[in-house]
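Issue 218. Parser rejects a valid record. Input:
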Amino acid sequence: MSSRKTSNWRGKNQVIVPWRTYGANAVIALFALFVCGVSPHAWGQKSAAPRSAQQATACDGASFHLVVDVGHSEKSYGALSARGGTEYEFNLRLATQIVQALLDQGFTKTTLLITTDPKRSGLLQRADRANKMGADLFLSIHHDSVPKKFIETWEYEGEKRTFSDRFPGHSVFISNDNPDRAGSLLFGQLIGRELKARGLQYTPHYVEPFMGNRRRVLVDADAGVYRFDQLVVLRMTRMPAVLLEAGSIIHRDEELKLLAPERRGLITEAVADAVASFCALRSKPNAAIARASKTDTSAARTKRAKQDVSRAAAKPR
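Output the parser choked on:
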């Protein structure tokens, strides 16, 4: 697989956050919008099945703003697959299909977010861009690999490649540091359960001691939702945020499945249904309750902070 192939999908719902430019008067161009025809079947794939009538009436998709973040960038492409493809290619392909499916279903504010900065600043730009858009929900699309100690070598089409046929499956991550941790968990659970309903299994290996500093806390064993508090795009966004590792591209069999239209179709359908359910649950009456709860929590925190200051001032020096 070529590592240089990029999306041919350029629509009004795509936002590209360019790489920082340097110079005496260096500035960051925050985003560029490409306006042209939108293919109804991005990457030649079919869109997700239509939502149910109940979901359609309960959720105002036209006003709901989801940002779908393409993990990594063309220059900083993430992991390599067992056959030499880049993670960025996989991420872009799947994210584009998800966005198109949601646009077709009436979620007309859904945005595809691409960041070209290959450095950590690119992660901050992703969160900053989503925050400035005032998005309701954030989803970052990735594909998984394994720690180096599990890597093996093989030959594919006359070239030496790396692989690991351990740990197939997807995983869902949230951060407890996200301002809306409950919303993040809810969306993560919805995605996990929709994937499970389609016969897709999450990988349980992140709880194992051998994962070392990549070991994670499993917060929902049914949906396959893990905590990854330090992830910038999950903790710095001001809306519920989830990162989906759609599968392991370093696994030789799973790589082929993830390249197949059928698997991408299942994942796309699962995400689209999860978004519709989340939107319905976060409809205006529910959102009002959530805002009131958030206000009460904020007031309680302020009160505790004032009490801490008073106690500190009362202590003898």
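Fixed in the parser; the record now loads. Residues 14-282 form a domain with the Aminopeptidase fold (CATH 3.40.630.40).
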